[in-house]
Amino acid sequence: MAHIPMRMSPKIYWVLGASLLILVGVQGLSPASTDGSVGQTGLPQHVAIMMDGNGRWAKAQGKPRVFGHQNSMRSLNEAIEGCIELGIPYLTLYAFSTENWTRPTEEISTLMQLFTTTLREKLGELMQHNIKLTAIGNLTDLPTPCQEALHQAIQTTQHNQGLHLIVALSYSGRWDITQASEALARDIVAGDKQLSDISPDVLATYLSTTGIPDPDLLIRTGGDMRISNFLLWQLAYTELYIEPVYWPNFRKEHLYQAVQAYQARERRFGNVTS
Ligand code: FPP
Predict the structure, then answer these.
(1) Is the CB of 55 inside a 6 Å radius of any atom of ligand 1?
(2) 250 CB under 6 A from ligand 1?
(3) pLDDT tens profile 167-201
């Protein structure tokens, strides 16, 4: 059997080292990610999250459903911090849907109180991290203290240049498309727009998300595989990622895994690959 020398020449070490550096450079490892495994190239610009599974998480522990909502703040922090660390510019959170108003009164009341106190208590942290907060949805449906806390947070953070955090409250995709259609129809009746102006691009400017790029990646926790009336228009070509863990168990690592899965996808937008 041929003898293979174990000692390599300094030149070989140099070539190996240079190759490794090139590989790392191509991969673009993010120094900010906890495990260093998320590449900085091909990051989603907008991540949307359906924070589902709070009720099931609580029930699994023999607790009332609201216990799940009350224990969801760490997950919220981790999702926000994870996006900041990766340099993702937009994060949309589905916090309360139009259909959620049909839930038991006690659960709705707990959620509204939770939104209000969280918005008040976290305002300092939003400022500290340069986060700009906005909201989408039929916000006039919300109780007055919640509207006030929301308004205060939106006003205070409006000039921040960091992560743009969009909270969907009393939101549904059908509501959004309906209100956009109504606003466009009003402009046509008023003579500010013509029937011939109607196009997907024009209608999109009337949606509550105007100016915000469509989500690249949608993460739904809790394992269910449906859109549940979320950003129906905006999700046309969004990559879907279903995470089995319930929302109170969601951590940065789950976000990183979703982003890695996204980076491995081929997005064709209805086109063909060459
Ligand atoms: C869905 O789980 C979760 C909600 C309806 C509430 C989500 C809200 C938060 C996590 C608080 C966010 C706070 C701010 C300020 C943005 P579910 O109750 O439908 O759970 P299930 O599917 O197990 O029943």
Answers:
(1) yes
(2) no
(3) 999 999 999 999 999 999 999 999 999 999 999 99
